[in-house]
Design a protein that fits this description.
With 180 residues, this protein is an alpha/beta fold. The strands form two sheets. The protein has a six-stranded parallel β-sheet with strand order 2-5-1-6-7-8, with helices on one face. Strands 3-4 form a two-stranded antiparallel sheet. The protein is globular.
Length: 180
C-alpha cells in the first residue's frame, strides 16, 4: 500500500510548483512517485479530430491510448458521479509515494500550502489531518506543536520534512496488510 499525502491549498498558492520540485527531486533519487491531480474544470487531453477522441465521443466508456512513451486512460463519466479518490488510487501502479493535489475534503494526511497574501483563510485550523504547513508567513504563535511550519521559500527544507514523513510511515505490502 502506497504512502499517500495530499498537497492542499487555495488556487494560486504554489501547490503545483512545490509538487514539481518535490517530484523532480524524489524521482532523481530513484523513488517512484505517483501524482493524482484534481481539477474542477473539464479536461481535454486530445484534439477532437484524433482517433481516440472520436472513439470516446462515439460512446466508448473508456479509451486507452498506448504508445512506447506513455499510456493514458480516458473515462467518460457521462453524467455519473465523480469516482472517489480511493478508486483512482487503486488504478495506479505501486509507488514509494503518491502525492495528491487537491481533494482537501478527504481524510488523509495533508501538507497545506498557505499564502496569506491571497486573502483566503488557512485550512489547518479546521483540518486535523494537516501534518505540515508550507508558507511564506511566519509561524503563528498559537499553532500547536503537532503541525510542522515550513518555509515556502526553502523547498529543500520541505523536501527534508517529506523524507522524514515518509520514514515515519513505512510501506506495508498489500499481502502483509491483509494477513495481519
Amino acid at each position: 500500500m502506497d504512502r499517500v499525502l495530499a498537497v492542499v491549498g487555495w488556487s494560486g498558492s504554489g501547490k503545483t510548483t512545490l509538487l514539481e520540485f518535490l517530484v523532480g527531486r524524489l524521482a532523481a533519487e530513484g523513488l517512484r512517485v505517483n501524482v493524482v491531480k484534481h481539477s474542477h474544470h473539464d479536461i481535454e487531453l486530445e484534439p477532437p479530430r484524433k482517433d481516440s477522441a472520436r472513439l470516446r465521443m462515439a460512446g466508448a466508456a473508456e479509451v486507452m491510448i498506448a504508445s512506447p512513451y506513455r499510456v493514458a486512460i480516458l473515462r467518460e463519466l457521462r453524467g455519473a458521479q465523480e469516482p472517489p479518490l480511493a478508486e483512482h488510487l487503486a488504478r495506479l501502479a505501486p509507488a514509494d509515494l503518491t502525492l495528491v493535489e487537491g481533494y482537501k475534503w478527504e481524510a488523509l494526511p495533508k501538507l497545506e500550502v498557505f499564502r496569506p497574501a491571497l486573502g483566503k483563510p488557512a485550512l489547518y485550523p479546521e483540518d486535523g489531518e494537516i501534518a505540515a504547513v508550507v508558507s511564506d508567513a511566519p509561524r503563528p504563535p498559537e499553532l500547536g506543536q503537532g503541525v510542522a511550519w515550513l518555509d515556502l521559500n526553502a523547498p529543500d527544507h520541505v523536501l527534508a520534512w517529506l523524507r522524514g514523513w515518509m520514514r515515519s510511515r513505512p510501506q506495508v505490502s498489500e499481502r502483509a496488510a491483509v494477513n495481519d
